[in-house]
């Protein structure tokens, strides 16, 4: 970006994030680039999240009714309630991996047509997290830029190319305010970042992805949450890009070996995560099957599936205490 030093606003929609809220805010306030304001939009927390937020003088708390929340409109509210040239979005249970997170995203605005810069989510090496998902980088991160120039060029592109270009992830994303004022979020209970990515690319803007801009973020999944999320992802892929789900490759032996070789886990913990992984894989396979059966029946069946699964977003298992207790009972 050129000209004056851009002001940065942070907007964080939350509900019941007391466990991770302080780590999230401390991580933001400890960055190499200072932010000008932090707005927390709470939609009915009952776990003391608001009390934690009020301990931070630089943070403003805005409370809304749970019925007023959706992922699109609530973020538009955050834009209206802040004033920074750049608007950073994250969530209350994410925290920066290092102190350069915001600096890297700000540096991603390499051209005047860049509407947004997105980082990536990674899983911390924590025994409360699935060790098969722990972040283990195998190459140096490379920044990428995606642009089509017009709606016609975007619509004419290959389906998979269009999908891979929609790189925004609102767990770790930064937008130009000027863009959001022209192209606001759509009302959405799920996938608002994918929708605004499509709108940005069709409007001639560019999107940047920087895998070096990382946040720790993890939700433990089970069979039911995995199945629901899988159906939702399949529905969005079909509706937005006319894509069918790809073939799933299962490597249970490789996963078992990885778990057995992890020296920081007890045998009980290894058994717990092996069972959890098998459960989630079953959820993926069953979710794809549900979607494929509906797709084979035609548009009416897909519309019915959409109403059933996209009426409310997938709700992950958030409680670390719950997963710890489950591990104690494993075996």
Q: How would you explain this protein's 3D organization?
A:
Strands 1, 2, 3, 4, 5, 6, 7, 8 and 9 form a 9-stranded mixed beta sheet that branches. The protein has 13 helices and 9 strands. Helix content is about 45%, strand content about 15%. The chain has 2 domains: about 10-215, Spore Coat Polysaccharide Biosynthesis Protein SpsA, Chain A; about 225-330, no CATH class. Helix 2 links the parallel strand 2 and strand 3. Helix 9 (about 225-240) runs parallel beside helix 11, helix 9 crosses helix 12 (about 300-310) and helix 11 (about 265-295) packs antiparallel against helix 12 (about 300-310). It is of the alpha/beta class and about 325 residues long.
Topology:
Blueprint: E1 8-14, H1 21-29, E2 37-42, H2 49-53, E3 59-63, H3 71-80, E4 86-90, E5 95-96, H4 101-107, E6 114-122, E7 144-147, H5 151-156, H6 159-165, E8 172-176, H7 177-182, H8 192-202, E9 206-216, H9 223-241, H10 252-260, H11 267-297, H12 299-309, H13 320-329
Parallel strand pairs: 1-2, 1-4, 2-3, 6-9
Antiparallel strand pairs: 4-8, 5-9, 6-8, 7-9
